[in-house]
Design a protein that fits this description.
Largest sheet: 8 strands, mixed
Shape: globular
Number of strands: 8
Strand order of the largest sheet: 1-2-4-3-5-6-7-8
Length: about 290
């Protein structure tokens, strides 16, 4: 019998490690978790790894607790392109954590990852934030309120929550408009109570505060944005993406907008072309090692 021979892989090139359920903070007595995708070499010889840009992903969840693993199979490709990827959990609005709890948590996770940059071979100076649906809302808000003390917890006080680029897919940008669009969906009224409180008179102001469309401030410096949205979305109306792109551009902010023709919310939105569009945008914004694996 002939025995085939393969050469070993001393640098562990092409291998990806999943680090699950890392506790990054505790809020209201509740542990908050994230999961990481890193080169396998991080486990054995992290000192040999050049620091990599960080991609922080927030899964859509109707502002409830995100599923950490929802997009992990697709996110692996970005590790091969040169990133460390983190997927982030936040508190659940339905369980008594109203706005801005989810926003505070996403910002805290970014600061945690910067504080532990050496452990995970992260370049703390290159951070990208990507969110879908309610996670996209969180990503946009986080980028537009960088280091705002109104949304800052006491965790990792020496770190910044500022990011270098943002990707938002089918994100609510005008929260009042989104809730009006889905007013007949069961549970919509309950979610509004959980997010904004028992007094409906207070809702308009809180909805506006939670709407990225109204958080753009003239003269401020913001990162570059990539917005993607399906024009057949039945949960968040497509025009919200166009409105957000127009407002960012009017403020002199770098923004790219992509219409996914015929796509609903999640479902048929995703495709290799969408993931490649994100990769191309990130390559224009972030310095990547050309041979990163």
């Amino acid at each position: 019998m002939q025995i085939k021979e393969l050469i070993n892989n001393p640098t562990l090139a092409g291998q990806v490690r999943l680090i699950e359920n890392v506790t990054y903070a505790a809020a209201d007595g509740e542990a908050l978790h994230l999961s990481l995708l890193v080169p396998w070499l991080q486990r054995h010889r992290v000192a040999e790894l050049a620091p990599r840009p960080l991609l922080v992903f927030v899964q859509g969840s109707s502002w409830q607790r995100p599923t950490l693993g929802e997009e992990i199979p697709q996110l692996v490709q970005y590790v091969h392109q040169g990133f460390v990827v983190a997927t982030v959990q936040h508190r659940n609005a339905i369980e008594g954590h109203p706005f801005p709890a989810f926003l505070q948590d996403v910002k805290t996770a970014i600061r945690y990852l910067r504080a532990h940059a050496a452990q995970y071979a992260i370049d703390p100076h290159q951070v990208v934030l990507w969110g879908t649906s309610s996670g996209g809302n969180a990503a946009l808000l986080a980028a537009l309120t960088a280091n705002d003390p109104a949304y800052r917890t006491a965790d990792y006080p020496d770190q910044s929550d500022q990011v270098n680029a943002v990707v938002a897919c089918f994100a609510p940008t005008d929260v009042a408009d989104t809730f009006a669009y889905t007013q007949h969906v069961p549970g919509s009224d309950l979610l509004k109570i959980c997010l904004f409180g028992q007094d409906p008179a207070q809702w308009p102001a809180k909805m506006k505060e939670m709407s990225p469309l109204y958080r753009i401030q003239p003269g401020q410096t913001y990162p570059a944005f990539l917005l993607l949205h399906g024009d057949a979305d039945q949960v968040v109306p497509y025009h919200e993406m166009e409105d957000m792109a127009t407002a960012l551009a009017a403020a002199g902010v770098a923004v790219e907008a992509v219409r996914v023709k015929g796509a609903d919310h999640e479902k048929d939105f995703w495709s290799p072309a969408v993931y490649q569009t994100v990769a191309d945008f990130l390559a224009r914004q972030i310095e990547l090692e050309p041979t990163a694996k």
